[in-house]
Design brief:
5-stranded antiparallel beta sheet, alpha+beta, Beta-Lactamase, Alpha-Beta Plaits, 17 strands, about 425 residues
């Protein structure tokens, strides 16, 4: 290895590796503590125009060194020449002939000069490097200050142990103080249990560099016991010289709740708060692939037009909502789904139940609804419902579902024809 490569190797360890160092270096040869040879680079480092100018202005090599290291330099020279110590590198601050303060890194090397032992000192001016490192440290402080004062919630953690958190993040996490957040061993306690393994996997992907700057909406537990939704942007950074993850968070709880409300309204009937026709088909599609046994119930309020004509549409809406509550309770207890099919008509599906059990459920609905009393001013009236039931074995296609619904509709028609307020079950068996 050449001497300059050795110097660069040592500097690579001492200083930040991203700084490029000029390959030029200065050399001085010392014999009996006198400078016997100087090259041009060395002379210029010390503020002289030429080697001759430098040599003519000093009486001893010590004139080039700070006074406080004269004794150490003299001792080092004699020890190296005597073979009592190995040459090594030194870093020291000096002042050149023009008053400029600079820092050099030097490496001593024992040689022969005109037949006598001498010390060759090779130096590199580190002033540019020192200034660059200073600016990097200043930029690092500015970066940390920017994070600390940011209006966004920002946290830096390593293996989920908080290293830094700003005031905005403390507020978003509903903690009492920075100290409360920094005292926890792991921010995993803020992540619901069912998502913790996924969070650990995601952390490893970021640290390993496989994921760069990802954004996601997550649910977190807060310090006050509440649950909030955050839009999280995390990426790999260097913090105090080691890899860490910076997390930027934004509270989007209101947005998530609004989206859920809109999604709910898109799938539920506004009057009855049960599935609409479109949502019923979505529910069916989830079960078709399982080829489950499926039972269908079609329910229609008897003489509903008469209710509207006699007591008004407002009373008719009350009747519809009352039946919806009864049906919803019965179906939810049996892992079924019910929706408003249109007007005063409802449809329901129950998987994996035999027809006898379903008919009992239908009778429960009919009886409960029949027993309700509705009041309008001084009038009290009751309403009944007719129900048609059909079943299909291994129902796995929409074509079979449509046939199932048509069969239930025929049964409903027969229930109406047979005096209403009845339950009619298909006598065709399972379709």
């Amino acid at each position: 290895m050449t001497l300059i490569k050795l110097i660069k190797s040592v500097l690579h360890i001492i200083y930040m590796p991203q700084i490029n160092i000029e390959s030029s270096y200065g050399v001085i040869i010392i014999q009996d503590m006198n400078a016997v040879h100087v090259d041009e680079v060395y002379a210029k480092i010390y503020g002289y125009e030429s080697p001759e100018s430098l040599l003519s202005h000093i009486d001893s090599f010590l004139d080039l060194l700070p006074v406080d290291i004269h004794k150490l330099a003299t001792q080092n020279y004699h020890n190296i020449v005597a073979g009592k110590m190995y040459p090594r590198g030194h870093t020291f601050t000096n002042i050149d002939r023009n008053g400029r303060e600079f820092t050099v890194f030097s490496v001593d090397h024992l040689i022969q000069w005109h037949g006598k032992p001498a010390l060759q000192v090779t130096v590199i001016d580190l002033s540019v490097l020192i200034e660059a490192n200073k600016r990097i440290r200043e930029q690092d402080l500015m970066f940390k200050r920017l994070i600390t004062d940011s209006g966004q919630g920002i946290m830096v953690h390593r293996n989920f142990k908080p290293l830094m958190i700003n005031d905005a993040c403390v507020k978003l996490l509903r903690a009492n103080s920075k100290e409360q957040v920094m005292s926890i061993d792991s921010v995993l306690i803020l992540i619901p249990q069912q998502y913790q393994d996924l969070a650990k996997q995601h952390y490893q992907e970021i640290i390993s560099g496989n994921t760069v700057g990802s954004t996601s909406v997550v649910e977190n537990n807060c310090f006050d016991g509440s649950s909030r939704f955050f839009n999280v942007y995390d990426n790999l950074i260097e913090w105090d010289g080691e890899p860490a993850v910076q997390v930027v968070i934004e509270d989007v709880t209101d947005k998530v709740q609004l989206e859920r409300e809109l999604a709910y309204k898109a799938t539920h009937d506004e009057l009855t708060d049960i599935f609409n026709r479109s949502a019923i088909y979505d529910w069916l599609n989830e079960y078709l692939g399982d080829s489950v046994d499926l039972t269908c119930l079609l329910l229609d309020i008897d003489d509903f037009k008469l209710v509207n004509d006699t007591y008004g549409h407002h009373s008719g809406d009350k009747v519809i909502k009352a039946l919806a509550v009864i049906i919803k309770g019965v179906f939810e207890d049996n892992q079924g789904a019910v929706g408003r099919w249109g007007g005063e008509e409802f449809i329901g599906f129950i998987p994996r139940l035999d027809i006898t059990h379903v008919s009992e459920l239908a009778e429960t609905i009919r009886t409960r609804f029949e027993q309700l009393e509705f009041k309008v001013d001084e009038s009290v009236f009751a309403v009944t419902v007719s129900i048609g039931i059909s079943e299909a074995k291994q129902c796995h296609t929409m074509k079979r579902v449509e046939k199932l619904i048509k069969t239930a509709d025929k049964c409903l028609y027969l229930a109406k024809s047979n005096g209403k307020n009845t339950v009619n079950i298909s006598d065709l068996g399972a379709i």
